[in-house]
Amino acid sequence: MLRFFTSGESHGPALTAIIDGMPAGLMIDVEAINSELAKRQQGYGRGNRQKIETDTVSFLGGVRHGVTTGAPITLTVANRDFANWKHVMSAEPTDMTTAEAQEQAQKKAIERFRPGHADLAGTLKYDQSDIRDVLERASARETAARVAVGALCQQLLSAVGARSVNHVVQVGSVKCAALPVDISLSDIEKLASESELSATDKSVEDAMKDAIKAAWQEGDSLGGVVEVLVDGLPVGLGSYTQWDRKIDGRIAQAVMSIQAFKAVEIGDGVVSASLPGSQVHDPLYQSDNGDILPFKRKTNHAGGIEGGMTNGSRLVVKGYMKPLPTMRKGLDSLSFPEFEPARAHYERSDVCAIAAASVVMKAMVNYVLADALLEKFACDSIRALKESLESYTLRVQNFASRDEGDRAAKTANLNVEEGPELIGEF
Question: Model's pTM, two decimal places?
Answer without folding.
Answer: 0.92
